[in-house]
Every structure is written in structure tokens, then in C-alpha cells.
């Protein structure tokens, strides 16, 4: 099994801040690694280093020779004057270089080297590059190929960059938050695309279902060190808990030994210069170990919610449209006390507009929203990160309150409150412009919750938050004594938080579905299957009036071999589905070795291809049964 990437002894620091120190790891062919770490611990920095976009202090980064590598940055940039399609030809990948070389040679009178370029074009499948670009862009709902880059939203730009990575069909891809700005349909398409391919990958994502379904290895940066887990996200959760428990046991042991050594140090000051020097050295090592924080970094969000009455808000005959785009059409709704509503739907269907109407930021065309007198909103918006870059973190919080009341009646100073949000004293007195994207999001969440709201409105709260913060936020929302509306493409987050979903289906159509997102998704798939079955009209169900028209066009009959093939496919499909289910169950047990995991993962890819191929053939043959 070829090694695509080998990293040895890598260290990176910014001044006194050490992000990671002397870390080593490799990515082999077929491995799909999810990188997990708390915000501000260097995930994006590490990916930038691997992509050659950032320097490092020491160590070695070695890629396999002639490896085709694709890289999706967190915030991609393209010249604003380019069109969407032109941006897809701005990549530095080998396919684009081959196309450029071909066009340069053909435009000149000197055709030396043409044979070599033609061979490269063939091997890289460069002739249909533009068609592949259009297909993938369309899957990501970018259909205006002539639109200028400067006219795209941040989410559209991220999708163009993702398409740019996938078009070149790299052997190894590095992805920084690939699901940010993808709606649910696009995320599920990307899952399927990656699972069908044989691409190796290293990615940062906070989408835990995506991690679980795509990755076969999890790599965690914790305490400046790398820990690897040979399995998917579910396996990682189990094994990480074992590691933390073992670490805490070791810390308990270190503390007990430290107390004994401390007594000895106090009794034997003269021993420091003679034979007992090894015990002095051991003491300082124990002291260092005992001072490690146990499972440090838990965010505590036990903030007091103010009283909320029975009347929350009532919507009557609400309508809103932008030109031909209908957002709401005569919509009515009564929101209940302590309701936790999730809002889902494709991009552009009006989810954020609906929220802004509720918050009074956008006026409806007609109808009204009547909000109860006791409602006290806490609004976390996609556009809410408007901090003064030159302010210190502590001053951002102090502008809101010097003292914050907690749910148990206790009170915290602004500094103590920030420490619960993983802002140590040195970071509190640092400037906002020095914070990472995830740290800014965490600070913004802090400023929303500290106002003691009783109705939380969260518009895409999961973007750029680390998994530790998301876990605690989910626990907080589950016990929150107030109302919640969440707009999110994070399926895992929605499943844990909401009790029903409001689906924006487009063109002003909304569906209120009882249950969380996975329930809705299963129901939708069942509806789609039933609709597909109803479209099939058997010959016996065809109207009699059509018979004269078909008298001279006898229906094709299956040959003997085709009938046998049809029967064999019907027997094979259940067996293939059963094998796939059994392998998926094995991979979730956490008992497989790395080689076994890789083998099973490859087999699942083969099974998916075989099932799809046989299903399509079955559909073809069934037309003539």
C-alpha cells in the first residue's frame, strides 16, 4: 500500500504560542482521515502547511512523487473579473497545465512536443475537462457558468472552489470544511461522490455524520500531540473516551506520587546536590504531569434564561417574495412555549429571510408576526461577527455586562465567564483580530448567551465551531428553559436538538414535519420511491384505446438468456445489499485492524458500484417483462 504523504517531526508556533510540536503521521493510499481539534489549535494551519501555503518551524513534509493533489482552503480566493468557468481553469493541477500547454503549442507554428502533450491529455482525460466542470458545478447548484466571481456569495465561491478540486480527479485531496455552505442535498451528494471514488483524503469538518460516513480514520490534535484512531467517527468517540479515562487515571496516580515526593523534597533539602538528584528530576517531571488539565477545554453554557410566557409568536397570512422568487405565500403558524424548531431546505429557498422577518430585519409583503411581550430574543446570525478588530476580547464582553448570572444562581465576572468559553487570561487580553475564525464564532456565541435570552434564534450556528463546543451547545439547548429555532445544514446537530422540522421546499411551499431531520429524510426517501413506482405503467394498465396504434409495433420480448440474466439479478441484489450491511456493521465494531478497515472500505465501494450497475440493468430488462 503506497504512502501518499509522510509528515515527520512537524512543529509550528506563532511567537510563544505552540500549535503542535514534533508531530508525525502518514496518509496511505485509500485512507480517508478526518482531522479533529479544538478551535485555535492549528487545524487550518496544518492543512495550509501541507498545501504549501504556509511555512513551519521544523520537520519534514513529503508527498509521493507524481501524486495528483487537490486542496480546498477554508476561504478560497479568485480574481473577481473571472467567470465561474474561467475560475475552473485557474487551478494549478496537472490537467489544467496540460490543457494550457496544448493550447500554447497549437497557437504557435512550432509543434515540437505535441506528441508528449497529447499523451498527457489522454492520460489525464483532459479532453472532457470543461464538460466535467459543468456537471460538477451543476451538482453543487452553480448553473450560471458565465457569472463573474465578484458577483458570487461566499457560499457560492466555496462551492466553485470545491468543484475545482473535484474536476481534476486528484488521487489525494485536502479539504478544509468542505460541507460549509452546502445544503443537505449537496452534502449527501458529496458523501456519495467521495464514497464511490478511490480518492485518499485528509479533511477538517465539523459535520459528524459526514465524518462517520466518509472517513475510515480519525486524527486528533490534542495537547500539541497527534492521536490516531483507525475507524470512523463513532469508533473515535468510543476509543477517545477510553484514552481520556486512562489519562485521568494516570493523572490521579501522578498526583498521589507527587504528594509523597513533595514530602520528601521538604524533608531532604540537602539531597538535591548528591545521590538523590534523580529523585529531584523525577519530582519535577511528576509536577509537570500532575498540572495537566484533565480533559481540558469543556465549554460550560449554563446561563440563566429569563421567564417566558405562554404567548410566543403568532404568524398570520404572511407572504414574501423577491421578483419571481416566492419565499412565503399566505403562511400561518402559532409557535408554542418551549418549542424547539429546526428549519431545513436548499439554499435560496428563504430560510434566512424568514428568520430576518421574525427578528424585524426584513419586512413582509403582507401579513403580520405578533410576538409575545415576555419574549427576549438571543439572535445568532450568519452575519453577526461585527467586532471592533482593535478591541480586546475581555472588553467585548464587558461592554455587555461586568457580571453574568448563571442558571444555578451563582455569578461570574466577565473574565471568569470567558474562561468557561475556552478563553484563558492571556487570550482575553489579546486583540480580536488575532482570533481564529472558530474563536470568533465562540466569542459571538458567548455574547449572545450572556444576555439571558429566553428565545434563541440560531442561523447556521455550527459553521466554524469545533466539535467539543458543538457537543456542549447541544447539551445546553436540550435543557434550555426557553424556545429555540435553528437553521442548520448540520444533520447531526439538528437530530440532537430539535423536536420537529419546518421544511422550505421552494416556491413558497413549507412542510411542518414532526420529528428530527433523519426521520424526515427517511420519510422523504419513502415518498420518492412510491412516486417512482407509480410512474411505472404496466402493459395491462395501459388504456385500451392505445392498442390500435401499437398493433404494428410488437413489444420486444426477452430472449432466453436475458430472462435468465433478469432472474439472476433479482437473486443477486438482496445478497449484495446484505453483504454491504454486514461490512458496515463490522466497520462500526471498532475491532478491525487498519488493513482490515481499508480492505472493507474498498469492498464497500465495489459493492456500491455493482449494486448500481445491476439495478440499472434490472430496470432495463424489467421494461420488457
Report on the architecture of this protein.
The chain has 625 residues and is of the alpha/beta class. It has 4 domains: 3-237, 3-Layer(aba) Sandwich (Rossmann fold); 238-290; 313-523, P-loop containing nucleotide triphosphate hydrolases (Rossmann fold, 3-Layer(aba) Sandwich); 547-622. 43% of the residues lie in helices and 20% in strands. It is built from 21 helices and 20 strands. The protein has a 6-stranded mixed β-sheet, sandwiched between helices. It has a 6-stranded mixed β-sheet with strand order 14-17-18-12-19-20, sandwiched between helices. Strands 2-1-4 form a 3-stranded antiparallel β-sheet, with no helix packed on it. Helix 5 (129-139) crosses helix 6. Residues 293-297 and 538-553 have low confidence and may be disordered.
Summarize the structure.
The chain is an alpha/beta fold and 625 residues long.
Fold topology:
Elements: E1 3-14, E2 17-28, E3 32-36, H1 43-50, E4 58-63, E5 69-72, H2 84-87, H3 94-107, H4 114-123, H5 129-139, H6 154-167, E6 172-176, H7 184-196, E7 200-204, H8 208-214, E8 217-222, E9 225-229, H9 233-267, H10 277-290, E10 313-322, E11 325-335, E12 340-345, H11 351-358, E13 366-371, E14 377-380, H12 393-398, E15 403-405, E16 411-413, H13 414-420, H14 425-428, H15 437-449, E17 455-459, H16 467-478, E18 483-487, H17 491-497, E19 500-506, E20 509-514, H18 517-535, H19 547-550, H20 560-587, H21 594-622
Parallel strand pairs: 3-7, 3-8, 5-6, 6-7, 12-18, 12-19, 14-17, 17-18
Antiparallel strand pairs: 1-2, 1-4, 8-9, 10-11, 10-13, 15-16, 19-20
